[in-house]
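Customer escalation, tier 2.

The customer says the design service returned an amino acid string that "doesn't look like it belongs to this structure." They asked us to rerun it and document both sides in this ticket. The original structure tokens are below, unchanged.
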């Protein structure tokens, strides 16, 4: 069998204020797979994904591309996993789009020429090459999301984790994002309340409740089972 891209076993996490956020999570992501994480706010989804690149560290094991994630290997996990956050403005902070997308490669040691080439290739991949010289704050919400994804793609990750990617997007932008993500070869984890989006993009879903994954299966099967909308 092909080794999983991500394998999590018996993951527990308690915040400093005593709140128990994760209660024994087991999870697997295979090569090329797209998985939606469903569940109410506060059910543990975001806490879970923050463990995948070492931003949080609880009890249990997290492996990314065969490497256990801990303090010593978190940097490697962050190269393997590209995080796309809910609010694109939290990822876009440079004066121009091209500078924003090139920032990650530059910070990782690429030469200015290499960073620029990778940034332009990533912008072309998301259909935003014409906006390279524009200021990010002049972009629409949908355009900002594409540029944020380009910034992640420029780092050449093997896995994408997207936290509520359709937030702030109008219906045409949501459909465009769905089409774009479907063309990207990386395995994906999508934290979302957008059930139509999840069903269109993902082959499988995991349903979180009170810090546990209480069910896994096809997106529509879980929606019907839990009568969740």
């Amino acid at each position: 069998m092909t080794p999983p891209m991500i394998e999590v076993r018996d993951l527990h996490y308690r915040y400093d204020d005593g709140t128990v956020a994760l209660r024994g999570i087991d999870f697997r992501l295979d090569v090329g797979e797209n998985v939606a994480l469903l569940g109410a706010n506060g059910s543990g989804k975001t806490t879970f994904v923050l463990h995948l690149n070492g931003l949080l560290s609880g009890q249990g094991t997290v492996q990314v591309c065969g490497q256990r994630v801990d303090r010593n290997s978190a940097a490697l996990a962050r190269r393997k996993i590209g995080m796309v956050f809910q609010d694109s403005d939290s990822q876009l902070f440079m004066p121009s789009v091209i500078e924003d997308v090139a920032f990650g490669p530059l910070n990782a040691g690429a030469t200015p020429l290499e960073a620029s080439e990778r940034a332009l290739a990533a912008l072309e991949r998301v259909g935003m090459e014409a906006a390279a010289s524009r200021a990010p704050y002049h972009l629409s919400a949908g355009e900002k999301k594409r540029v944020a994804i380009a910034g992640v793609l420029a780092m050449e990750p093997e896995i994408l984790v997207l936290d509520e990617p359709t937030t702030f997007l109008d219906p045409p932008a949501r459909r465009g994002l769905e089409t774009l993500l479907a063309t990207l070869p990386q395995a994906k984890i999508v934290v979302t309340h957008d059930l139509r989006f999840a069903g269109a993009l993902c082959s499988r879903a995991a349903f979180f409740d009170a810090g546990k994954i209480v069910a896994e299966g096809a997106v529509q099967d879980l929606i019907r089972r839990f009568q969740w909308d």
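Tier 2 assessment: The sequence is consistent with the input. The chain has a mean pLDDT of 93. Residues 34 and 202 are 5 Å apart (CA to CA). Sent an explanation to the customer and offered a walkthrough call.
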